[in-house]
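How a chain folds remains the central question behind the approach discussed here. No coordinates are needed to read the tokens, only the vocabulary itself. For completeness, the protein is quoted in full, as a sequence line and a line of structure tokens:
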Amino acid sequence: MPEPTTPAELPPRAAAPADRHELTAVERWIDSRANRLLRDAPSGGGRARLVEFLVFGAKQAWACIFGAAMLVVIVAARLWYPDDVWLARNDALVIAAIAIQVVMIATRLETGRELWVIVLFHIVGTGMELFKTGVGSWEYDGGGVLHLGAVPLYTGFMYAAVGSYMVRVYRLFDLRFDRYPRVWLTTLIAAGIYVNFFSQHYIVDLRWVLLAAVLVVFARTMMHYRVFRGTHRMPVLLSFLLVACFIWIAENIGTVTGAWLYPNQEDGWQLVPLTKLVSWFLLMMISVVMVTWVYPPKPPIERDAPGAALRRV
């Protein structure tokens, strides 16, 4: 967590507590009990930094709940799902993914606004999957009836997991931004990245040009995120890279289960090439833009007045 800022050191434009109404009902319940548990936590020294780090990890884990559930289901299906049952493994994964989504909405673990983002990720991701499998970029294990072409329908939920994480982390950490680029400009770059995922197979691959555009446009953008007592800052480009790394790790787990394979893995599993990080980094740009359509970027605001109530977890 780069550049931590304790309450006594908060700069004039550090983020203030987010509105609890942005939380789901379950999150408000967790929030109130977590604050009771941590209200006597030290405000300085090593123990305070440890508390801040643990709360950071807990929030990240909560933001990943949809993706983690999907990954557990994929691994479990590969390890324990029998091959000779009437319901194909891929169809079982589709049903499990739908069940996870329904539970999250029914129990208010996701908001209606988040559902819109997830639908967008489904559409964008499925379109890419249909094309990429068609040109042989990767392939899925066959079987089942719940698929479009060679693409099992559960794959859309994997992209939705990225969208779910993005919107949840946005409100859980009350993300705010210094010098965020114009949304129309980021949308233009994201559209170019998405088109290039298709056009690179027929004309020149512009990924390095698009990567340079992302680096230039976001070079000065700083993200402010609040954990517990402290507000922290991180370059947005670093956050893109970190999330891309976690997706790359999840991708390795997915391929080792055989859920999908790259051409170089057909004769035996190999680590997904690190060059895929560039693709995931660019995908993060598309993801961020879609989230900003629902949650417009907010600038940092004045810090709380002295004596204000404990910041929520």
